[in-house]
Amino acid sequence: MPKLGYAYAQRVLWSVTFAILFTFICSLIFPGASWAASSLGVDNGHLSSCPASNNCVVSQNADPKHAIDPIAYHIDRDLAKETVLKVLAVVPRTEVIEQTDNYIHALSKSRIFQFVDDVEFYFPTNESVIHLRSASRVGESDLGVNRRRMEQIRLALRDLNI
Q1: pTM, whole model, 2 decimals?
Q2: Within 13 Å and on the Cβ side, how many CA atoms surround 145?
Q3: For residue 5, what pLDDT is reported?
Q4: Left if phi > 0, otherwise alpha if psi is -120 to 50, otherwise beta: which for 40?
Q5: What is residue 44's DSSP assignment?
Q6: Among 14, 19, 64, 121, which residue's CB has the most CB atoms within a 10 Å radius?
């Protein structure tokens, strides 16, 4: 019987250790939501700025850490918007959830943990550029995923000669 009690105690100890480690890792990955619904959309001709965390890029009014170039186009604005929508339709795990005549908002989910990123495109009427913003909803770092996604979209649009 003493061996049975020892095995049970060891199993409980491993379970408690795992729970503590899991909680610690989750607190590192999800330190708190850095996203708020009010930070989406266009306000006075600008996309929202990025939070201080390293999981966002934006092409308007950004500090060097968060800056990304807008996408220039040389076709009709409506055709440029239609082309962006076609590209987004083939981006894995990405769904357009809102669009107006000058704005697109899509959600993009990571493959394994299903983390949600907000992806935004703004088409100002007085410029032939598409302003971009891509931001993770949680965490401190995205390991460059948002920047790479937007650069891949830029390359796809360049290949389509917009």
Answers
A1: 0.76
A2: 18
A3: 67
A4: beta
A5: T
A6: 121
pLDDT of residue 64: 94
pLDDT tens readout for residues 76-134:
999 999 999 999 999 999 999 999 999 999 999 988 888 999 999 999 999 999 999 99
Cα distances from 117 to residues 27, 96, 127, in angstroms, run: 19, 12, 26
C-alpha 11 chain-centroid distance: 40
The per-residue pLDDT for 35 is 45
Give CA–CA dist 72/132, Å, rounded.
Answer: 11
Calculate Rg over the CA atoms of the chain.
21
Token digits for 36? 């708020």
Q: Which residues pair with 58 in a beta bridge?
A: 67, 133
Of 130, 155, 20, nearest in space to 69 by CA: 130
Closest CA to 84 of 58, 59, 61, 102: 102
Look at residue 161 and give its three-state secondary structure. coil
Structure tokens at 47: 């996309």
DSSP string, 62-106: --TTTB-PPEE--S-HHHHHHHHHHHHHHSTTEEEEEE-SSEEEE
**Which residues does 52 contact at the CB level (< 8 Å), separation at least 6?**
none
Q: Which two tokens stand for residue 100?
A: 């107006």
